[in-house]
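User: Is it possible to get a 3D structure for a protein together with its bound compound? The compound here is IPE. I've pasted both below.
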Amino acid sequence: MPEQNLTEKIGTLDTDRIPRHVAIIMDGNGRWARMRARERSEGHAEGVNSVNRITRISSDLGIQYLTLYAFSTENWNRPQEEVDTLMHLIGWTIRKETPDLVKNNVRIHLLGETERLPKEVQDCLYEGVNATAHCTGLNLQLCLSYSSRWEITRAAKLISGLVKEGKINPDEITEDTITSHLSTKGIPDPDLLIRTGGEERISNFLLWQIAYSELYFTPVLWPDFDNNAYVDALIDYQTRERRFGKTSDQVSAGNNNDN
Ligand code: IPE
Ligand code: IPE
Ligand code: MG
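Assistant: Yes, that's possible. Here is the predicted structure of the complex:
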């Protein structure tokens, strides 16, 4: 069968079932570079084009939240030179892209222990956050120095602080209490989690929030992840039946009250 062109492929999407929140583990930059006998940093630079592309099409498709795993807590353990390159690439990219993000009504949010980032990188990032604060379209969450265990540990500390001050009773702690002390507070859980690069693991990303997300793993390396590959993931997502613990019959009877 001839490869459908992108517009036709997008036309096959059910506009009523576009995921509200897509989260992506952007993996495979290093391998992309190695396959071309290039430096890993060139793979990261190429990966930025994918970030721009996927942000743009997500916004065009009416996705409300896009969460990108850009640098994990564990990534601090990479060689210092690679960490430095990544940090500067991230900072400069946000500074460069901010005018376009504003034009496209995209609002930037940062998730993670951003105070660990170099000061000048933080400056670029917060300029982007402030400049897009009024935007009402796509919410773009950039996860930087982020890990889910860090986030859950922090939530536990915050909640115990409230207990200690007598502001909350341990008996009153609910799932909502935990959810509202995570850095994703106010953001609905991801409907779809994509990991590029071929590994089928979560690598400490959004462990609490993906309890009922649909998972999609693709061998495509992040710099090669184009709009076609993204729409394939969305089409695959639309074939899934999200049951949230119920039976298939209940779901078809429209008795799916979750989400
Ligand atoms: C993902 O690509 C980018 C980050 C983790 C920052 P990698 O750098 O992990 O690429 P591979 O997995 O080595 O190919
Ligand atoms: C996950 O990729 C983190 C990001 C994409 C930022 P890694 O390349 O760090 O994951 P592992 O170490 O192979 O699991
Ligand atoms: Mg990797």
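The radius of gyration is 19 Å. The chain is about 45% helix and 15% strand.
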